[in-house]
Each structure stands twice: as structure tokens, then as C-alpha cells.
Design goal:
The chain is of the alpha/beta class and 697 residues long. Helix content is 57%, strand content 21%. The chain is built from 23 helices and 22 strands. The structure holds ligand C2E and magnesium ion (2 copies).
Length: 697
């Protein structure tokens, strides 16, 4: 750091010395100048005295003698007299020598006689005096010849003063030497004192300043070190704070990233189905909306496919939700795999999927896509240990023909899907405007059906079940018949699916069960004894936790014994193994017989039958219809018969229309028959009439 005190001391010392020197010099010069001026004034006064007293008497002589030689001038008696008078006049004054020059510069008188005759015409002082002005100078002489004799070490002021005559003209020059040695000695002494005093004061000032500067320097030093400390401290703090901020920043970044991840998870959850990871209905609608706008601008077509898994509910109910969930995931995977990246497969809920296919060109192309989609479901799905067969039903709508909005397109695709459902599993339909009418009609049917159950618009037909070889009546199947107030008779193929979908089937089924049991008990009382009645039971009914109570209550209510009731369950019920198994078991223990309806059309593996408390297998009429025409169907019938026998199950074939079919079945080993060959379903009265006599016969 800049050393303040050192620089200050050096500089101020130098300045003080210079100032002291300059001050001293000026003081001395001024004093000398004053001294000279004073001496000159005195010399001028002395000259005036000389001029007034001696010049009138000796002036003439001196002017005149100027032309003579020096020796004679020196020895002249006037010179001796003049000398005596001058010496007397100068006594007790400071004047130590006096000289007189004539206008030519010749020394005409000198108190030192040896100098008489000397020429001073070239002297500057003389020339100046000749010009009318006095001129003085201070000189120092080591030795000097004064009036009193030889003197040594003298400080002298010599003045050349003009001597003016009466008219004021300059007639000569007077030179006086004044001894100022004591003055000068005194002057020098005071100068030393003053210089000493000034130096002492300046020295004190210097010391005071030095002390102040030292102190300031120390303060500055301390402040600097404090500043450095503070700086270091600040540095450390800044570093620490920076680290803290960096850490905070890092953790903030972490938080931000976490929040972003959470937000994107949330967004994903909000827009995706958590089970399959596919977009949900909301996201699908958005994408469809965007696609519609694109198609509107580009003039393209797009297809909305509504996909519903067949029998999924049965699988879910029978094998459990874990299996159901896995199956949905696998199905979603297959659907997604088949689609193009630009297409969207979404799961709005349940066992339904919707699919958006952009850039299609008409129905044939879309049909191919749908066929491909259905084919995806060909290979079985492996879930745990189960090899599950699954199919789907697809309904399709096209933009712009089948609708120009998200709602219209999805609704119409769904309508088409329901229509396809009616055509059986693994089917597809394209939307047609009349389907909307159908859907509307469905709604009407549903309302009417509910009313009919309450108001008694339903009745039962009975179709005989016969022992082939003897033609004896062994039982009858009760089949629901409904005549709608507005639409007239409606086939079960139409209203049963609606009842199943809407849940109406539970009440409907209970009514059928009660009515069939009541009818049998009534016939008993009338003396017409039908050995037993078969009642169709929907999976929805079996699902109900109070099924056993309801059946028990109906039997108790009607007084029919359990062994005369057979419940026909489809394979979808059989698939509901988990919980339904115990229900079926209990029904069987109650004495009720169980039959598998439409056997062979579903997907249940034959091995299931072993586990189930089944009494009878009902060969579906589709196989019976194939007798004589389809070796495959015939083979199936033989296999089913063999299997049922090996399992100790009874058999019955339905849909037997011809004697040939009856004969084939008898040959194969199935003797119980149901079909138009032995009788169409008939109302109770007609049935009894038809069979009371025949049975009697
Ligand atoms: P399903 O249980 O297989 O009933 C047999 C169906 O085959 C009846 O049709 C019957 O009329 C018909 N059928 C009988 N013999 C022949 C024949 O020789 N040839 C032909 N082509 N068909 C014959 P329906 O009455 O129209 O019933 C259709 C289905 O509706 C039934 O099939 C059954 O699954 C369901 N269903 C009917 N009533 C009820 C009911 O009360 N409850 C439940 N859950 N389902 C019912
Ligand atoms: Mg049936
Ligand atoms: Mg059947």
C-alpha cells in the first residue's frame, strides 16, 4: 500500500526546507536592500553637507586641478587642507572613505591619497551618477584603507552621488564608503534567529502533521485490514450463499421436475385409462374433434369404430377381476398393435373400446380394417393358466356421412355395434340411418317391457321335451312370450337381449320362474302331470346374491317340488365359475336340476363340465340343423354325446325338426328331443290340450 507517512515526511520536509530557504533569502535580500537604501540616503545627505560646506571653497580648485598630474595634485596644500576638513567632518560617522571625481572621471580627491589621479571614467556607478542618479552597492573587503588607517573584514556600501553646482548642473561625483559591518553582522544574526524560529515552528508543524498523518496512516491501515477482513468475510459469505443458492436451486429444480412429473402424471391420469394406458373417453373426444376439423378442411373421411368385447362380463364374473383386467390389457394391446400410429385407440370404460382411423376411403376399406381388427382376437389370450377365447363386436361410423360431430359419430358407431351384437358374437356393422330408429325403438321396447312385467303383458309358451323312442312327454321348456301394446308380439330373440342389457331380465326371469312353477302346480291339481319344467336362467339372475332365497321362496310359494324344476343356464353362466359354482352347487343340493343350454356354441371348455353340478347337456339346435348336411356338426354331436356319457350327464337335443335328425340323434345316443318335430312352443292351455290326451293315449 502507498506509504502515506513516508511520502508525507519526505515531501513536507523538502517543502519546509525550500520554504525556509526561500523565506530566509527574501528576508535577507529585503533587509540588505533596505540597508543599502538607508545608507544611500545617508550618503546623499552627507554629499549634500559636503557640497554645501566644502564645494564652494574647494570646488574651483578641484575642477581646475583635474588637468594637472597626480603627483602635484596629491602634494598640493589645498589637498592637505581639504583632507583635514573632510576627516574632521566624517569623524564619528560611519563613513570610512570619501572620494571626489571630476566630470572626466579623474580622482581629484581621496581620503586615501594614493588613489588621487586614478581614472574611474569607465565605472558604471560613476556613469550613473554622472547621469543624475545616485548609485550604491554593498561589497565586502578583506582589507581596506579607511580614514583611521587600514581596516580588515569590512562590509561596505559605496555610493556615487552627483555634485550639482548653483545652476543644478553636475560638476563632479562624490564617492562615499560607509561601513555597515555591524549592521550586517546583526542582520545575519537575526536572520539565523528568524530562520531557526521559522524552522523550529515548521519543524513543530511538521511533527504535528507527521503525528496526524501517522495516526491517519494507522487508521487507514487498520481500516484497510478491516476492509480486507470484511472482504474476505464477504467473499466467504458470498461463496457460502452461492453454494446455498445452488443447492436450493438444485432442490428447487428437483421440486420443479417432481412437480412437472406429477403434473404430467396427473395429466396422463386425466387423459388415460389407468388400466390399459390407452387414452380415455375425454382424450379420445378431443382427438376425434381435432381429426374432424382436419377432415373438414382437407375433405377426407375418417372412421370411428366402437368395439365391445363379447361375453367379457361372464369371464370377469367367473374368473375374477384380476383375470378380467389382464384380459382387457391384452385386448387393448392387440387393438393398439394393429392400428397405425396416427390412429387412436381409446378405452371409454368397461369392455368397450373406441378407435379413430383417419384417411379412410369408404366402407370397403374400413371393412378390411375392421376384419383385421376382429382377426386380432382369433388366437386365445393366455391369462395366468387360462387360455381364454375372446371375440369382439364392432360398430363403425364414417365422417362425414354418418355424422359431423364427435357425439354423432361415437353414438352412431355405438348404435351400429349394438346392431352387430344382435347378429351374434364376432360381428361388425356399419352405421345406417335406420339403426337410429332401431336404437330409438330399443328404448321404447325397454320402457314397454318394464311396464309389461308389472302389468302382466308377459305369458309363457311351453315346448314339449320328448323321449324319442317312446314319444312320451318327459318335460317342457317354458319360453317367455311378450306382446307389446304398441308393437304387437315381440320375439324373445329381440327382447331377451334388451332385458339382459338393461337388467330387466332379473325381474322378468323371476316372473317366468314363478309362472312356470305355478303352472305346473296348477296342472297337477287339474290332473295333468308334466314331469318337469325347464326354465331359462340368465347369468344376471345367478349373479344376484339372493338367487337361492328367491328360488326357494317360489318353490315354497307354488308348492312345486324342486326335482321337477330344471334351470337352463347358458355357457356364460357356466363360465361364472368362481362365485357361481357354489350357487349352482346349492341349487343342485336343493334338488333342482341344472342343464347347459346351447351347448357347443359358447367357449367353455368341456373339462369345466366335470367340475360343475350339471345334470344335463342341451345340444344346440345349430348342430342339429347340420345333421345330414354338415359332417362337422355330426362329429360334434357324437363327441358331445360320448363326453356327456362318460361324465354321467343326461342329454337332450333341441331344434329337432325332422325324423331324420331324430334318428341320427337316437343312433348317436341322444334320445331326449325338443323341437318342432314333437311340438312348437304353445300357450299353457293349448299345450295341456295337446298333451293331456296324447299322454293319456
Ligand atoms: P332357447 O332356450 O334355446 O330356446 C329354444 C328356442 O328354440 C326357442 O326360441 C324355441 O322356439 C326354438 N325352437 C324350438 N324348437 C325348434 C325347432 O325345431 N326349430 C327351430 N328353428 N327353433 C326351435 P324362442 O322361444 O324364440 O327363444 C329364444 C331364446 O330366448 C331361448 O333360446 C332362450 O335363450 C331365450 N329365452 C326365451 N325365454 C326365456 C326366458 O324366460 N328366460 C330367459 N333367460 N331366456 C329366455
Ligand atoms: Mg332354453
Ligand atoms: Mg337353446
Amino acid at each position: 500500500m502507498f506509504n502515506l507517512s513516508r511520502y508525507f515526511s519526505t515531501l513536507s520536509l523538502a517543502l519546509i526546507l525550500v520554504a525556509g530557504g526561500v523565506l530566509g533569502y527574501f528576508y535577507y535580500s529585503l533587509s540588505v536592500a533596505q540597508l543599502v537604501a538607508m545608507a544611500e540616503d545617508r550618503n546623499v545627505a552627507m554629499t549634500q553637507v559636503f557640497r554645501n560646506t566644502l564645494w564652494p571653497r574647494y570646488g574651483e580648485f578641484l575642477r581646475r586641478e583635474g588637468a594637472r598630474d597626480a603627483g602635484s595634485l596629491r602634494n598640493a596644500p589645498e589637498t592637505a587642507r581639504l583632507h583635514a576638513e573632510v576627516t574632521a567632518q566624517m569623524r564619528d560617522t560611519e563613513v570610512v572613505k570619501a572620494k571626489v571625481y571630476n566630470r572626466a572621471g579623474l580622482t581629484v580627491y581621496s581620503s586615501d591619497a594614493r588613489q588621487i589621479g586614478e581614472d574611474k571614467g569607465a565605472n558604471a556607478g560613476f556613469r550613473r551618477a554622472l547621469g543624475g542618479h545616485a548609485a550604491s552597492e554593498l561589497t565586502h573587503r578583506n582589507s581596506f584603507d579607511a580614514f583611521e588607517g587600514a581596516l580588515s573584514d569590512l562590509d561596505l556600501i559605496s555610493s556615487y552621488v552627483p555634485i550639482r553646482g548653483e545652476g543644478g548642473a553636475i560638476e563632479g561625483v562624490f564617492e562615499l564608503y560607509q561601513d555597515v559591518t555591524p549592521f550586517l553582522a546583526y542582520l545575519r544574526q537575526t536572520l539565523w534567529w528568524i530562520a531557526g524560529g521559522v524552522l523550529a515552528i515548521l519543524g513543530l508543524l511538521y511533527l504535528a502533521q507527521f503525528a496526524v498523518v501517522r495516526r491517519a496512516h494507522a487508521i487507514l491501515d487498520r481500516q484497510e485490514s478491516e476492509l480486507q477482513d470484511a472482504n474476505r468475510d464477504l467473499d466467504a459469505r458470498v461463496r457460502l450463499r452461492t453454494r446455498e443458492l445452488e443447492e436450493a436451486n438444485r432442490s428447487l429444480e428437483g421440486e420443479v421436475a417432481e412437480r412437472r412429473a406429477a403434473e404430467s402424471r396427473l395429466d396422463h391420469l386425466a387423459r388415460h385409462d389407468p388400466l390399459t394406458g390407452l387414452p380415455n373417453r375425454f382424450a379420445f373426444d378431443e382427438k376425434l374433434d381435432a381429426a374432424i376439423r382436419r377432415a373438414e378442411q382437407g375433405g377426407g373421411q375418417l372412421a370411428v369404430l366402437f368395439i365391445d368385447l363379447d361375453r367379457f362380463k361372464a369371464i370377469n364374473d367367473s374368473l375374477g377381476h384380476a383375470v378380467g383386467d389382464e384380459l382387457l390389457r391384452l385386448a387393448a394391446g392387440r387393438l393398439a398393435r394393429q392400428m397405425q400410429p396416427a390412429d387412436v385407440v381409446a378405452r371409454p370404460g368397461g369392455d368397450e373400446f373406441v378407435c379413430l382411423v383417419e384417411g379412410v376411403h369408404g366402407i370397403p376399406e374400413t371393412q378390411a380394417i375392421v376384419a383385421e381388427m376382429l382377426a386380432q382376437f382369433g388366437p386365445p389370450f393366455l391369462v395366468g393358466d387360462n387360455d381364454l377365447m375372446l371375440s369382439a363386436t364392432v360398430g363403425a361410423s364414417l365422417f362425414p356421412g354418418d355424422g359431423r360431430t364427435v357425439d354423432a359419430l361415437v353414438r352412431n358407431a355405438e348404435t351400429a355395434m349394438y346392431r352387430a351384437k344382435a347378429a351374434g358374437p364376432n360381428a361388425s356393422r356399419f352405421y345406417e340411418p335406420e339403426m337410429t330408429a332401431y336404437a330409438t325403438e330399443r328404448l321404447r321396447l325397454e320402457r314397454q317391457l318394464r311396464r309389461s312385467i308389472v302389468e302382466g303383458g308377459l305369458r309363457l309358451d311351453y315346448q314339449p321335451q320328448v323321449d324319442g323312442p317312446t314319444g312320451r312327454l318327459i318335460g317342457a321348456e317354458a319360453l317367455a312370450r311378450w306382446t307389446c301394446e304398441e308393437l304387437g308380439p315381440v320375439s324373445p330373440a329381440r327382447f331377451i337381449p334388451i332385458a339382459e342389457e338393461t337388467g330387466i331380465i332379473v325381474d322378468l326371469g323371476e316372473w317366468v320362474l314363478r309362472e312356470a312353477c305355478r303352472q305346473l302346480a296348477a296342472w297337477d291339481l287339474e290332473g295333468f302331470r308334466l314331469p318337469k319344467v325347464s326354465v331359462n336362467v340368465s347369468v344376471r339372475q345367478v349373479e344376484r346374491p339372493d338367487i337361492l332365497d328367491r328360488v326357494g321362496a317360489i318353490l315354497a310359494e307354488t308348492g312345486l317340488t324342486a326335482d321337477r324344476l330344471e334351470l337352463e343356464i347358458t355357457e356364460s353362466v357356466i363360465m361364472a365359475v368362481d362365485e357361481t359354482l357354489s350357487v349352482l352347487e346349492k341349487l343342485r343340493r336343493m334338488g333342482i336340476r341344472l342343464a347347459v343350454d346351447d351347448f357347443g356354441t359358447g367357449y367353455s371348455s368341456l373339462s369345466y363340465l366335470k367340475m360343475l353340478p350339471i345334470g344335463r347337456v342341451k345340444i344346440d339346435r345349430a348342430f342339429v340343423a347340420g345333421i345330414g348336411r354338415s359332417p362337422g356338426d355330426e362329429a360334434i354331436i357324437r363327441t358331445v354325446v360320448t363326453l356327456a356319457r362318460s361324465l354321467g350327464l343326461e342329454l337332450i337335443a333341441e331344434g329337432v325338426e325332422t325324423p331324420a335328425q331324430a334318428e341320427f340323434l337316437a343312433h348317436a345316443g341322444c334320445v331326449a328331443l325338443q323341437g318342432y318335430l314333437h311340438g312348437r312352443p304353445l300357450p299353457a292351455g293349448a299345450f295341456r290340450e295337446s298333451w293331456a290326451t296324447r299322454d293319456a293315449a
